[in-house]
Amino acid sequence: MSKLERPRTKLVPVPTTNIIPERDADKTPILECSHLGIDFGGLTAVSDFNMAIGRTEITGLIGPNGAGKTTVFNLLTKVYQPTRGTILLDGIDTHSMNTVQVNRAGIARTFQNIRLFSNLTVEDNVKIGLHNQIGYGMWQGIFRLPGYWKEEKVAHERVMELLSIFDMQDLADHQAGSLPYGAQRRLEIVRALATNPSLLLLDEPAAGMNPSETAELMENIVKIRDTFQIAILLIEHDMSLVMGICEGIAVLNFGQIIAKGTPDEIQANPAVIEAYLGKQKEGE
Q1: C-beta separation of 261 from 250 below 8 A
Q2: Once rounded to an integer, what is the mean pLDDT over residues 46-55?
Q3: Fewer CB atoms inside 10 A, N or C side of the chain?
Q4: Signed CA dihedral, 41, 43, 48, 50: sign only
Q5: Coil, strand, or helix at residue 92?
């Protein structure tokens, strides 16, 4: 497998304090977070979180364990309602939306812990992601009327098309829980894509994968972005993956962004080095 070359993308300012790829600068960012924060009782978990994501950007959200990264994902998908701040999805304020409405508006996600319907087939798991696009009603489904079979044929073809991204079409009839770990991870991404998102959130997609699987995943993430022309925000501890495919990176520590920039800028940032390695004593 050929080694992926890191994208050399120029990041430019947008009207807020955020940065996005130059190629997306003439379009509204798909996501803009302004002064986003959440408190749990007296504890501030995320504070003054500001980020923009270009419409075709692959960006990373990294930081030490407990930094608040998954909490940010939960805010974006309305698992948690923000205590303060604004989330704009394609220019629309998501303040009044719930998780289902946010998904319909264009955000899909995967989770740290795989959440598949293990007893269903691979195809049926992906079909669940197509629920927003099913065109038949309850009675057509109950009585198997012609409209039902027409929509089922369309759904089957769409599922096979999505599975082919990961060369999983031959596994369509397999039980999801019987798949190897890496294949279950890929299936979860395919199911998220089935909701037709404009922003895909990947929470540690390489967790549990071996180096070969991770390298293949990197190629597939880029392929997904290029094929669907969507934005991808990922949380990941595998720095070779983050530095290899992300164009912009935000670093979170104790619920606050301490750095934003290109991979080269992030790798050389003293605050990032300190957050990961600790502050060195003088003379060391």
Answers
A1: no
A2: 96
A3: C
A4: negative
A5: strand
Q: What is the pTM of this model?
A: 0.86
Q: What is the pLDDT of residues 186-202, one digit of tens each?
A: 999 999 999 999 999 99
SS3 call for 200: strand
| Total residues belonging to the chain | 284
Q: What's the pLDDT at 113? A: 86
Dihedral sign from CA coordinates of 247, 253, 254, 258: negative
Q: Is residue 208 very low, low, confident or very high in pLDDT (cuts 50, 70, 90)?
A: confident
Q: Encoding tokens for residue 19? A: 């940065």
Which helix (H) or strand (E) segment holds residue 53: the answer is strand 43-53
- Residue 179, Cβ neighbours under 10 Å: how many? 20
Q: Cα separation of 164 and 269, whole Å?
A: 40
- At a CB cut-off of 8 Å and minimum separation 6, what does 88 contact? 29, 31, 32, 33, 34, 94
Rounded Cα gap, residues 60 and 266, in angstroms: 11
Question: CB 160: neighbour CB atoms within 10 A?
Answer: 15
Task: Report yes or no: 14 and 55 within 8 Å, Cβ to Cβ.
Answer: no
